[in-house]
Amino acid sequence: MYKRPLVLMIAIVTAACPLLAVDHWWHGGVSNNVNDPANWTDRNAATEPTTPGADPSGSPYDIVRIGASWGSEDLNGNGVLDPGEDLNGNGIIDDPVSPNVVGYGGYYGTYGDPPVVGGGVDVAVDPVLSDTYVSRYGTPYGGWWFVLNAPNILTLKDGAFLIMNRENCNLRNGGRLEVQGRSKTGGPSLIVARRFRIAENGSIAEAAQYTSQLRIKGTGWVQMDPALKSTGEAFMIGTSDPPGTRPRGEIVIEDEGRLEILPANPAPYLDFGNTDPSVNQIIIRDSGELWMPGDQATMGRVGPDNRVVSLQEMISMGLITNDQGGKLIVMGSNPTVIKVAGATNPSPAKADQDVNRKVVLSWDPAPGLSTVGYDVYFGSSLDSVKTASRTNPLGVLKSQGQMETKYPKTGVLALDFGQTYYWRVDSITAGADSTILPGRVWHFTVEPFARTLGSASIRASASSSLSDNSGPDKTVDGSGLSPLDQHDTNADNMWTSAVGQEPPVWIQYEFDTIYKLHQMLVWNSNSELEWFLGLGVKTARVEYSADGLNWTELAGVPEFAQAPGRDSYSPNIIVNFGGAAARFVRIVCTSSWGGGSQYGLSEVRFLYIPLQARDPKPANGSVGVAIDTTFSWKAGREAELHHVYLGTNPDGLNLIGTTSATSYTPTDLLLGTQYYWRVDEVNQAEAISMWPGSIWSFTTADHIVVDDFEAYSNSSPTRVFQTWIDGLGFSADEYFPNGHNGNGTGAIVGYDPSAGNIMETTTVHGGRQAMPLTYNGPSEATRSFAPAQDWTRSGVKTLVLYFYGPADNVPGELYVKINGTKVSYKGDPADLAAGKWRQWSIDLPAEAGLREVKTLTIGISGGKGKLYIDDICLYQTAPTVEP
């Protein structure tokens, strides 16, 4: 029985095909700024440029060309340097009749025999790409590349898609390339050819003080396709020159970034110019991954003699490393995955800036690693947590050899407000060669003691105002404040009372609900003439109330300092409320700095102690929420219990549960329904025992997703044929040690991952991808559900799936089986070759045991061809069939 190999590739064509339906931008010439709209013209699909070569009709991914081909800087041939033509700034016309002519930000040279002129992207500024940019072949000898020269940084934001299909893309003199996400189809954001050079430029002189860097962060995905050049190195990093004489070359893969080198023959390899890691290095952090194909014994070349080295040797020499304490591990065989060993999925999340001071640390075991225990390090010193060990605990080793994936094992940590903490979890591996694998260092910051009450929650009023431009609202709308919280001297950005108003002169603030107030910050009246007019409040009586009827005077109110009358005025008045519960605050002015009866204030800010639940999930106003959603929120400061209310009428919510956790899963939610919910925070030991929460809303989806095929990828354990079992089955790996022999039918699910994307990404009904199902004679693909699914909940009656059959299909009988109960397609069999999406609405058969659905099968009884399957969902009422 044939079994699929464990290889991972993403085809260029499928990654870009969906983009052809929209207009694109064509960059037709050389410019110092690829972001300048003046250098681009709109081109539609009818005039889409094509790629010369094997396919005369052009390539479907040939969408945009960046840069231009030239034989001379005198692009228009008029004999003078016009604006934008002097690319290296030397004042003369350069004509690249010999190799290695250097232009500012670009490399221009000749290749081949006879010489053929090349070209590249000129990036004399720091361009940021966020859309689709694809190179095209400029000469018979190759196409397009880029050179990033100091101080340039090219940034590919999430959604960008860039292909450079010629060798010798080059980062030099500190040039940097940062890839932050994936293409709009979820594939690689950058695809390049072999011989990608980083601080490796042969005879071209470079400055030694720089670091040239390829950085892959966030969900960034960079793919090297060796097919774009048949032989040679994959990445050339650093030179054999002594340290300090050339820029450092490095690749950093962090967050969830991936650098993937596709298989080829001959196999690509990593070329490090120096054995010294200070000269050249690949650094893997967090959940970053490096994918390398081929024989691990010959994956590298090192030094001036290009000595062949193994993957393990490169790791031992520190050329491939982790600089945050984690240890690299190698997973899989082809391709090899190199990643940081250790615990994953930390909670609190990495770099979370608003963590409850009472917290439990938790994590997931390292995937593919047999772990028998953990050492937990925790503290406020990064250096201590990073370097501590069992033999040198530095006061931060909190637990040794524990089995639990949380700390503390019981109770919670009570942390300091506003403090940043660092933590590390080392994994202890099983077996005779048991070892301690240091984990990466995570960090988070505890919430501040008090939070700023936003202006949207405050309504200001006053006994009088000098004009409409100087009303009380000016004290809470932020007008006149700089980003540094410094107030200007413009009187129109302040409140000023009317001239001659009889006392009392007051300004009052009403909040949207009761808050436990911590402090009030005050910017006094700050006009340029404050030194002369003295409108600033000097003494005042501050009162507060929960209902606006019964008022309490606040004790200990300080004298209000006079403002300097300068634009750099920061708040210099702090009024402490000491946790007073208030919905109203009133400032009654009793004297001014000028001694008169007219008063003014520039800005007033309230800080409160957060006692209400906040930050709900689902977020307020969410739509399309799954009916099995779990509510979560951030707890109020003093809460011991949480009362959860839910209903379809915001004025009639019902208590559905009480929990000590900050999450709750409601039951029996209906499809297509708008709900309202609230969390009241409860602590009977406090003076105010309950703090009602805000009312939030969400709307549930009108369907239940069975499979929308969006979660599948080319890597195990999320390959589509590992879930939908077909005739071929799949090979064993670390996730499926026994593999699967398949069901022996003529069905083949997915594409061969060694040839491209495993899923269909062009012909899709919804989302990014659909499942290709090739059939030949009796063919079935089956998905199992564990645990079993209840297909009667929320009143569902219909199973809907969408299929697409190309016109050259030979139709057969289409059917599904639910727990083995067969339901045949009642439409025209020719629909399997209609060349369009068809909706199949299936009345759920009661005899199928719908309360415990364990298997769903899609089958074709005969014929030959391919179907695309997408968006399998359950509905109460099937959607209207589109004509």
Describe what you observe in this structure:
- The chain is mainly β and 883 residues long.
- It folds into 5 domains: 12-340; 344-446, Immunoglobulins (Immunoglobulin-like, Sandwich), CATH 2.60.40.10; 451-609, Sandwich (Jelly Rolls); 614-701, Immunoglobulin-like; 705-875, Galactose-binding domain-like (Jelly Rolls), CATH 2.60.120.
- Helices cover 3% and strands 39% of the residues.
- A hairpin with a 6-residue loop joins strand 53 (641-647) and strand 54 (654-659).
- The longest helix is centred in the middle third of the chain and has 6 residues, at 311-316.
- It is globular and about 95 Å long.
Quick summary of this structure?
By secondary structure, the chain is mostly beta strands.
Number of DSSP-assigned strands: 69
* N- to C-terminal distance: 43 Å
Into which percent range does the helicity of residues fall? under 10%
Strand content: 35-45%
- Looking at the chains present, what oligomeric state does this protein adopt? single chain
**How many structural domains in the coordinates?**
5
Q: What average pLDDT do the residues reach? A: 82
Shape by Cα distribution: globular
Class computed from helices, strands and strand pairing? mainly beta
| Low-confidence spans | 1-71, 96-125, 134-144
Largest sheet: 9 strands, mixed
Number of helices: 5
* Physical arrangement of strands within the biggest beta sheet: 3-8-11-14-17-20-23-26-27
Radius of gyration: 33 Å
